[in-house]
Amino acid sequence: QVQLVESGGGLVQPGGSLRLSCAASGFTLSDYAISWYRQAPGKEREVVAAISTAGRSTNYADSVKGRFSISRDNAKNTVTLQMNSLKPEDTAVYYCNAIGIKVRAGPYWGQGTQVTVSS
């Protein structure tokens, strides 16, 4: 059974940091590119960061460049999003997404984790 489970969300003050994790099971993580998306109330879901299958290539939305960092550990079946210098506009539900690159499968989504940046 394919499963993506996000964790690490919560309430943080502006300027603070959070570390989100995406735990994958039921498939070979190294066959998939992984992206983090977010969706704020009343807004469309948007991609925040993406990482290639082996982690050699990353991409970020302009709004988070220099503040967020995506990484992966295929041996541990986890993908991490380190979020620093958080702003109120980063408040959203964050989702992990997996799409097959070496296999024709996906996309798969996690259930999301809430991030709230507020004083």
Short description:
By secondary structure, this protein is mainly β.
How would you describe the overall organization of this protein?
It is a single chain. About 0% of the residues lie in helices and about 50% in strands. The chain is globular and about 45 Å long. It has about 120 residues and is an all-beta fold. The chain has no helices and eleven strands. The chain has strands at about 5, 10, 20-25, 30-40, 45-50, 60, 70-75, 80-85, 90-100, 110, 115. Strands 2, 4, 5, 6, 9, 10 and 11 form a seven-stranded mixed sheet that branches. The chain has a four-stranded antiparallel sheet with strand order 1-3-8-7, with no helix packed on it.
Roughly how many Å is the radius of gyration? 14 Å
**Main β sheet profile:** 7 strands, mixed
Q: State the end-to-end distance.
A: 40 Å
Q: Shape, please?
A: globular
How much helical structure, as a percent, in the residues? under 10%
Number of helices: 0
Order of SSEs, N→C? Answer: EEEEEEEEEEE
Poorly predicted sequence stretches spanning 5 or more consecutive residues = none
